[in-house]
């Protein structure tokens, strides 16, 4: 999704058209407004350009100084600034298919039914908070060796408490690829926390995007689920250890919009169970 959106943004800024490889066609199975031309395999001559790191913002090299001939740009392009000029277009293209959205309704209805049975505050006061916990692959030895940091349980609790103080009746809709970790580390017995299993990654993202606001841990799946809500987003920083392979490319300001809410350790997990708001200029 980042590659698709960023390439579209670069093309808009440089007044070019786009052609995508076949692998991008899979987006059409999830989103209803994807507009793309698929490469037919008859390549014209083009210049290949590789982004200097997944989070590298290169406006001079990839925008201002882009060669006048055809170019192929890769790879991850995980920088929201590339598609900021066409933000509304990207949101519209990433509109979930109605069948996926309809599938999410029953989960929200189940929460509202539960609240009514408990004689809790009126349904009109409910604020749904989508929570995505990415676990399994982010805790693998290979990923950890690269310097990735898994968002700890005390961050998730702090993020939930942040919304509990802000709203009278928040309800947390938790989607994850590691339900065992969530059941062990998140208080799912709390009446405002609901562990959801929709059965597929696509419907998980669709559900999260229908919430009012978001809490993300790490990873681009949670990033896009949060971005598509159009609400407030709380995220965990830093996602990398300093001087690690991943840490050398991680740039907070390139990955997260400035209006998102940042919570961080102080610093790098040295003070356990302690999370605070990031300073505006804090990179770490």
Task: Describe this entry's structure for a reader.
The chain is built from 10 helices and 9 strands. The chain has helices spanning 2-13, 59-64, 87-93, 98-117, 141-145, 153-166, 179-185, 201-209, 220-227, 252-255, and strands at residues 47-50, 71-74, 126-133, 169-176, 193-195, 213-216, 233-237, 261-264, 276-277. A 7-stranded mixed β-sheet has the order 5-4-3-6-7-8-9, sandwiched between helices. A two-stranded parallel sheet has the order 1-2. Helix 10 (252-255) links the parallel strand 7 and strand 8. Helix 4 crosses helix 8 (201-209). The protein is globular, with a radius of gyration of 20 Å. The mean pLDDT is 89.
Short description:
By secondary structure, the chain is α/β, with parallel strands linked by helices. It has ten helices and nine strands.
Keyword list:
284 residues, alpha/beta, 2 domains, seven-stranded mixed beta sheet, two-stranded parallel ribbon, 15% strand, globular
Tally of alpha and pi helices: 10
Total DSSP E strands: 9
Measure the end-to-end span. Answer: 26 Å
> Any guess at the CATH architecture of the largest domain?
3-Layer(aba) Sandwich
> How many strands, what sense, and barrel or not for the largest sheet?
7 strands, mixed
List the helices and strands and how they pair.
Elements: H1 2-13, E1 47-50, H2 59-64, E2 71-74, H3 87-93, H4 98-117, E3 126-133, H5 141-145, H6 153-166, E4 169-176, H7 179-185, E5 193-195, H8 201-209, E6 213-216, H9 220-227, E7 233-237, H10 252-255, E8 261-264, E9 276-277
């Amino acid at each position: 999704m980042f590659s698709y959106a960023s390439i579209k943004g670069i093309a808009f800024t440089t007044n070019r058209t786009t052609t995508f490889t076949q692998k991008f066609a899979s987006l059409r199975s999830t989103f209803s407004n994807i507009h793309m031309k698929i490469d037919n395999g008859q390549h014209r001559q083009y210049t290949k350009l590789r982004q200097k790191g997944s989070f590298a913002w290169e406006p001079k090299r990839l925008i201002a100084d882009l060669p006048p001939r055809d170019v192929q740009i890769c790879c991850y392009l995980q920088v929201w600034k590339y598609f900021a000029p066409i933000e509304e277009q990207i949101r519209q293209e990433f509109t979930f298919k109605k069948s996926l959205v309809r599938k999410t309704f029953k989960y929200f209805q189940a929460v509202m039914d539960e609240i009514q049975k408990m004689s809790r505050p009126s349904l009109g006061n409910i604020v749904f908070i989508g929570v995505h916990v990415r676990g399994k692959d982010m805790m693998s030895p290979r990923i950890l060796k690269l310097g990735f940091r898994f968002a700890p349980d005390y961050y998730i609790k702090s993020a939930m408490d942040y919304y509990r103080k802000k709203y009278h009746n928040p309800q947390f809709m938790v989607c994850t690829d590691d339900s065992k970790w969530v059941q062990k580390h998140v208080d799912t017995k709390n009446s405002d926390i609901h562990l959801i299993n929709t059965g597929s990654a696509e419907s998980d993202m669709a559900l999260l995007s229908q919430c009012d606001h978001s809490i993300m841990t790490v990873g681009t799946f949670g990033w896009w689920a949060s971005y598509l809500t159009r609400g407030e987003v709380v995220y965990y920083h830093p996602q990398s250890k300093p001087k690690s392979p991943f840490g050398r490319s991680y740039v907070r300001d390139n990955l997260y919009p400035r209006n998102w809410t940042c919570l961080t350790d102080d610093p790098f997990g040295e003070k356990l169970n302690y999370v605070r708001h990031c300073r505006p200029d804090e990179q770490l």
